[in-house]
Amino acid sequence: MGINLQKGQRISLKKEAPKLEQLMCGLGWDVAKKKGGFLSGLFTTDFDLDASVLCLNQDGKIKSNSEIVFFGNLRHYSDAINHMGDNLTGAGEGDDEQILVKLPLIPKNIHKLVFVVNIYNALERNQDFSQVENAFVRLVNLSNNQEIARYTLSGNGYQGKTGMVMAEIARVDDDWEMTAKGEGFQVKSLGDVMKLYS
Q1: Phi and psi dihedrals of 123, rounded to 5?
Q2: Are strands 132-141 and 68-69 parallel, antiparallel or unpaired?
């Protein structure tokens, strides 16, 4: 059974999953159900959460747009990171979006992977993370399909937040460490998220 991470908690992937080379980062979410009778469900708008990975250099910056893996760029040029596709509604059980990472293929100039989520067209739809339930990010060792760690987010306390850093995986010497973040902010689009690291 994996570790249930607390906000800000770090784990060593080398320690928790020795010889880890390929991992899957899964993102899941459900939309909070509106109160007020079953008819209210007829007027809800789907939430489209988009998972992305920002590849940062040693200065914590994005070198170019090719260092971002998202629904518009599903494959990193190194083949180290592959996004398995966009889920427009969060419907279904388990992971709604998955990102596969091959740690040995990550170029040496990349020192940190930042896993972010933003709500597509959030401001136009008047949506934020307080309306999202059961949001989580989890890491799975693909060699044996064992869950290494999971970080669960509550919707409370994220009113007005339309983007979020869910987790980071950082290079530390020859090891990689994961940190659960859960840092919310208000952004209009992924482009606004990118500006935070430019």
Answers
A1: -70, -40
A2: unpaired
Give pLDDT tens digits along the chain (198 positions).
Answer: 678 988 889 999 989 998 899 999 998 877 666 554 454 444 456 778 888 999 999 999 999 999 999 999 999 999 999 999 866 555 566 788 899 999 999 999 999 999 998 988 888 888 888 888 888 889 999 999 999 999 887 666 788 999 989 899 999 988 999 999 888 899 998 899 999 999
CA atoms within 13 A on the CB side of 193: 29
Of 37, 3, 24, 44, the closest CA to residue 132 belongs to 44
- Indicate the pTM of the whole model: 0.87
